[in-house]
Amino acid sequence: MGHGRDGAVAVAAVIAAQRDEHRIPQRCPCRARGVSRSWSCKHKDRELTPRAVWRAALTAGVRQLFAARRGTYGSSRITAGLSRLLSQTRGSAGPCRVGHHGDMEMSPGGAPRHDRLRAMRRQTSAMLDHLSALVSVETPSVDLTACMAGAVAVSELAAALLQEPGERLEVGGRPHLRWKWPAGEGRPGVLLIGHYDTVWPMGTVARWSFFADESAGTATGPGCFDMKAGIIQLFHAVASLDTRDGIEILLTSDEEIGSPTSRDLIEDAARQASAALILEPSAGGALKVERKGIGMYRVEVRGRAAHAGLEPENGANALVELSHLLIATSAMARPDRGTTVTPAVAQAGTARNVVPALAYAELDVRAVLPQETLRVDRELKALQTTVPGTVVCITGGPNRPPMPRSSSATLHPLACDLASGLGLGPLGGASVGGGSDGNFTAAAGCPTLDGLGAVGGNAHAEGEHVSIAAMPERAALLAELLDHLRTE
Length: 488
What we know:
Distance between the termini: 48 Å
Helix content: 25-40%
CATH superfamily of the largest domain: Zn peptidases
Number of domains: 2
Shape: elongated
C-alpha cells in the first residue's frame, strides 16, 4: 500500500480498526503495515480539515438515510432525503453547493441529472404502450363524442401515472382536463399546456394504426406527433417528481380549431403562473421560441341565381365576385414582413347550369408583427364588391396573437443549460408560422417556452411520426425545468 495521501488515510483506518476490535498494541498493526508507530499516532491525532468534517457528516447521513429507506418503492424518497441532507450539511465548510455533488451535475431536487435520464429511459417501453393506447382513441376536434371518449382515455392514463384522473371542465359542451397542485406561499407556479384533439377524422386508425418500428427508432400513427406523445412525456415527467406543488396542467380538446372554448381557461391560468411550458411538438428537435399570430376569416358573397343557358344576364354571379376578392386578398400579403394571406377553402354553386347565388372562401392569415395583424384585418373588412347585384360579408378576425421571441428569452437558455447537463445535444430555438396555445399564454404576459413535446415530423400529414429515443429525453428535460422553475 502506498504512502500517498489516500494511502495514508487508508492505513490509518486499518490500524485504528484492528486496534479497537482486537485490543492489540499499537506497534503490532504498525509493524504489520510497515509504518512507524510515531507516524500512526501523529496521523490519528491530527486536526481534521473542514472538508473531512463535511465528508464524515455526509457519509453518516447517507448511511442512515439508505438504512431508513430500505424496502420502500422508488428512488424519489431517497432523492428528497439526499436533498435535505445536502441542505443540512451545506453550512459545513464542505464543497457541496446547489446543482453539484463533486463534479456530478445535480438537479435542484438532489437527483443526479444523468440518473434522472437513465431512469426515464427505462420507461421507454411503457411510454410506447401508453402512446399506443392514446392514439387508438381517435379525437377529431369536430367530433364532440370522440373528444368525450378522448377525455376519458387521458383521465385513465393520468390516474395510472399520477394517481389522479384530473378535473373535467366542460365549456360549451367541450371537455377539457385540469390538474392543479397549489404552490406554497410566495412560491412560483408553472403551467403545462397541451391538447388531445387532432386533425384526423374518425376511421383513420382503421387504415393507419399505431406502429412502433424500434429498428428505425420511430413510432407512427394519427396524432402521435401532434401531440399525443407530448401528453405521454408530460405525465411521465410529472410522475417522476418528488413534489408536484406549484404545477398546473391544462389539456384541451379544441386547440386544432382555434381554442374557442378553452382560451379563457388558458389565459386565466397564464396570468397566475410564473412560466408556461407548451407540450406542442418540436421543430426538428428545436424548441419554438417565436410564433406568428393567426387570423381566421370567412369571405361570403351573395348574388342572384339564374339559368346559365336561358338568361344568365338576370343573375349576379357570386363565384365571379369571390374570384375578384380572392385576388385582392392575396395582394395583402407582405412576405418581407412575415405576413401571409392564404385562401384555403372555397365553395360555390349548386349545379353546372345555374348562376351561383352563393360563394364563400376561408382565409388563413399569419403575421409576426401585431401591427400587421391589425392592418390585414382592417383591409379585409374594407373589401367591396364590383359585380352588380352582389354583396360581401366578412366574418372572423385575429385568433391568436403573435408569440414574440422575448417571451422565451429566459426560458430557452435555461432549457439549453439543463439539456447540456443531461448530456443531450444542442437545443436550438426556432421561429415558426404555426400557432398554439402558447400564443395566448405569451400575450397574457407569462414567460412561455413552446415545442417541448415530441421530436419527429409530418404533423397533420400521412406518415406523422415520433422519435422513440427522444421521448424519455424530453420527459427528463421537462422534469428538470419543472424542478428549477419552482425553486427560483
